[in-house]
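Quick review question:
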């Protein structure tokens, strides 16, 4: 399908998965209440904008804004917070989300578990499925995501193996529980470095815009998001590439692993960006400004 901007579908996928993906059911014609839960992926880290809560916007805000253009009565809450592992999301966000009686709930968690120094993946995946089952039992449409296959460096190869295991199970869980699936792993556009922040773990503004378009395509909702041509990927000589890899490892990966070893997450002082449902049609920047002034 094509969006209102006349663009072709925003992503192509590896054919083996495209062939197996069933056509999703569309959203109910009744007013949508969209609730997003998870970690930095859903909070919006990388899509920096000080006019929004926690200084970020993100794909979920962009999706909510587009849903509101179709139905001004659309309501939206976002409980996601950066650095949270699966158990944090389940304990502090899942029941809170269900209490808001959503018609659509997005769920991405487990990525931070994959990055832990020691982790039992079978246990993580069992707890992930239990969370999805609880969401699906509520009657809301459930929206799930695979985790992108970041080819970061030969050094964290064990993390890629965990990631592949996670994604295989997410696809199975989505089918078993009738959830919609956005197969982030399969999106070729994310091979472009400008889709990522310098840490290579969080999407950039371009990445969030692209994902918002992909979510809306999955929901079969027309949209007005314009996707930029990011140009060719610059070619680097081996010396420049080696220096870039070292800067990334020393500047981002090593400190991140150290924080995880010491259990010192980033953003522990932050609170949910949109803890209560808002109506995006009323203007999200205006609502954020009013909330910061204590006038809502």
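Suggested answer, residue by residue:
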């Amino acid at each position: 399908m094509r969006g209102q901007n006349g663009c072709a579908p925003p992503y192509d996928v590896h054919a083996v998965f495209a062939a197996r993906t069933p056509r999703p059911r569309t959203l109910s014609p009744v007013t949508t209440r969209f609730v997003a839960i998870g970690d930095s992926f859903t909070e919006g880290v990388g899509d920096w904008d000080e006019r929004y809560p926690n200084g970020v916007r993100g794909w979920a805000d962009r999706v909510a804004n587009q849903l509101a253009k179709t139905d001004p009565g659309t309501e939206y809450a976002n409980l996601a917070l950066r650095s949270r592992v699966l158990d944090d999301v389940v304990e502090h966000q899942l029941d809170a989300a269900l209490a808001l009686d959503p018609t659509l709930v997005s769920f991405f968690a487990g990525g931070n578990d994959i990055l832990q120094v020691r982790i039992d993946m079978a246990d993580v995946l069992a707890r992930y499925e239990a969370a999805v089952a609880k969401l699906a039992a509520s009657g809301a449409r459930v929206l799930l995501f695979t985790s992108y296959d970041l080819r970061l460096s030969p050094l964290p190869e064990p993390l890629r193996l965990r990631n592949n295991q996670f994604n295989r199970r997410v696809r199975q869980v989505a089918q078993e529980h009738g959830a919609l699936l956005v197969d982030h792993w399969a999106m070729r556009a994310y091979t472009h470095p400008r889709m990522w922040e310098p840490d290579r773990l969080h999407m950039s503004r371009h990445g969030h815009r692209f994902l918002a378009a992909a979510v809306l395509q999955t929901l079969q909702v027309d949209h007005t998001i314009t996707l930029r041509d990011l140009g060719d990927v610059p070619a680097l000589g081996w010396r420049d590439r080696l220096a870039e890899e070292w800067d990334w490892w020393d500047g981002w990966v090593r400190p991140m692993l150290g924080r995880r070893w010491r259990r010192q997450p980033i953003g522990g002082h932050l609170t949910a960006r949109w803890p209560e449902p808002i109506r995006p049609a009323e203007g999200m920047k205006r609502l954020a400004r009013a909330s910061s002034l204590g006038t809502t």
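Why it works: The mean pLDDT is 84. Residues 67 and 147 are 24 Å apart (CA to CA).
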